[in-house]
């Protein structure tokens, strides 16, 4: 786990404790945490071109 990911997790947790789960800063911090978690998982796994295409389609909203 990268230090950036640990920091993002800590930030999201701290913000949600003090501002509540629906506060815009909490929503933004959780989105950033999700982005970093996905990036770490994707980069840690060798992917075939087909897998990359499917993931790209999902991220761009065209896959199901």
Question: How is this structure best described in words?
Answer:
- By secondary structure, the chain is an all-alpha fold.
- The protein has one domain.
- Helices cover 75% and strands 0% of the residues.
- The chain is built from three helices and no strands.
- The protein has helices spanning 3-19, 24-43, 49-59.
- The longest helix is centred in the middle third of the chain and has 20 residues, at 24-43.
- The radius of gyration is 14 Å and the shape is elongated.
Topology:
Layout: H1 3-19, H2 24-43, H3 49-59
Helix pairs in contact: 1-2
Largest sheet: none
Distance between the termini: 29 Å
How many structural domains does the protein architecture include? Answer: 1
Q: State the order of secondary-structure elements, H for helix, E for strand.
A: HHH
User: Regions with pLDDT < 50 over 5+ consecutive residues?
Assistant: none
Radius of gyration: 14 Å
Query: Please, what is the average pLDDT?
Result: 93
Shape: elongated
Summarize the structure.
With 64 residues, the protein is an all-alpha fold. The chain is 75% helix and 0% strand. The protein is built from three helices and no strands.
Q: Characteristics of this structure?
A:
64 residues, 0% strand, elongated
């Amino acid at each position: 786990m990268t230090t950036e990911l640990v920091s993002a997790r800590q930030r999201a947790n701290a913000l949600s404790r003090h501002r509540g789960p629906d506060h815009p800063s909490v929503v933004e911090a959780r989105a950033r945490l999700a982005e970093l978690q996905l990036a770490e998982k994707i980069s840690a796994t060798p992917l075939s071109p087909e897998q990359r295409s499917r993931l790209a389609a999902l991220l761009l909203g065209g896959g199901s």
